[in-house]
Amino acid sequence: MYKISVIVLLFSVVNIVAQDAVIMQKEIDENLWKPFKEAFENIDGEKLNALYADEVIRVTPNGIDTENKFKMANLKRFEENKTNGTTIQLNFWFDSRHTNATTSYEVGFYRLDFITKKEVETIYGQFHIVLQKVDGFWKITQDWDTTKINGSSITAMDFNKQTPLQFK
User: For residue 41, what are the CA distances in angstroms to 4, 92, 98, 111?
Assistant: First the structure.
């Protein structure tokens, strides 16, 4: 009887922790990922940059940025998109999420569509993001993404394995 009680208690604690993670992930979706998507689609570099912490590690195939140079690049790139009349659609989904009260590690796939009067350029990629609660708000503290896995380009077939996240 004692073993059964311990097992039931253990499963109850695990269930509570899992429910807390789901609640926090919904908070993250509403307070970080929804504005992230909106910032891209409204071509708002300042709004996008505000979702990052003051100190960020940003890793791309071009190297590691620990000086927030990517934030200036965001502003410049978005200004160029506005000038050129380019619109952007961002879609993404999570492959895995691990969250506690102060930190979340999130892995997923994205599709970026850059739409001009002449064409649509689509970029597919994978991201690994670390979020931390900073002054009560979830902020991106580490951002890694790539368009290749094991030397192979990420394609529509990879992205279409799951349905993109939808916001209300």
Answer: 53, 13, 27, 12
Domains of the chain, by residue range, sit at 2-159
CA distances from 78 to 39, 70, 73, 82 (A): 10, 12, 8, 6
Strand pairing category for 103-115 and 120-134: antiparallel
Q: Which CATH architecture has domain 2-159?
A: Roll (3.10)
Beta-sheet pairing, 87-99 with 63-65: unpaired
Taking the model in full, what pTM does it have?
0.86
In sequence order, the β-bridge partners of residue 154 are none
pLDDT of 150 higher than 70 = yes
Share of the chain above pLDDT 90, in %: 83
Is the pLDDT confidence value at 16 over 80? Answer: no
> What's at 74, amino acid-wise?
N
